[in-house]
Amino acid sequence: xxxxxxxxxxxxxxxxxxxxxxxxxxxxxxxxxxxxxxxxxxxxxxxxxxxxxxxxxxxxxxxxxxxxxxxxxxxxxxxxxxxxxxxxxxxxxxxxxxxxxxxxxxxxxxxxxxxxxxxxxxxxxxxxxxxxxxxxxxxxxxxxxxxxxxxxxxxxxxxxxxxxxxxxxxxxxxxxxxxxxxxxxxxxxxxxxxxxxxxxxxxxxxxxxxxxxxx
Length: 215
Prior knowledge:
By secondary structure, this protein is mainly α. The protein has helices at 2-69, 73-84, 89-101, 108-121, 126-140, 146-157, 163-177, 181-190, 199-213. It folds into 2 domains: 10-123, no CATH class; 143-215. 81% of the residues lie in helices and 0% in strands. Residues 1-12 have low confidence and may be disordered.
């Protein structure tokens, strides 16, 4: 009997404390609940809008390819440029390289600006970002001077990905084409200081060094 009374008193005390806590903080609790509801509503809306945007980009990308198939290059170019600037890591990149592969953009400045926009405005893994940096440097190597090209390749040389070796090889090839063999040798030799590369990269560096030594 005594134990039952004690339990009853404990339950009453517990309920009273909860009631006091509720009365004291009920406005804060309501406010917190409203914030949570708004947050999850906004987040759901954000995800839905993002999904719809990707669907529209997919449709636009397919439409651009239809324009190309029908020989409507102006319409295709305009639509692909719009997608490339949409800041979607997948469709922006696909559209940009379709523009380049189809020779729809010939101005080097325009291509370079689009490269910069896609690299800076989209989220990529380190490997994918460095691949884009490499492709830009490779494209730019045909017209940039030495200091400009070094600036383009610097992010690769400072990275810890396989694209670091590609950056050294690119610079080696660049200086070879300029008949600056001492500089070329320096960059080719750097490849051997990078571990766990594809053997083809080491082989290419050795081959280029052997060509220089036989001149």
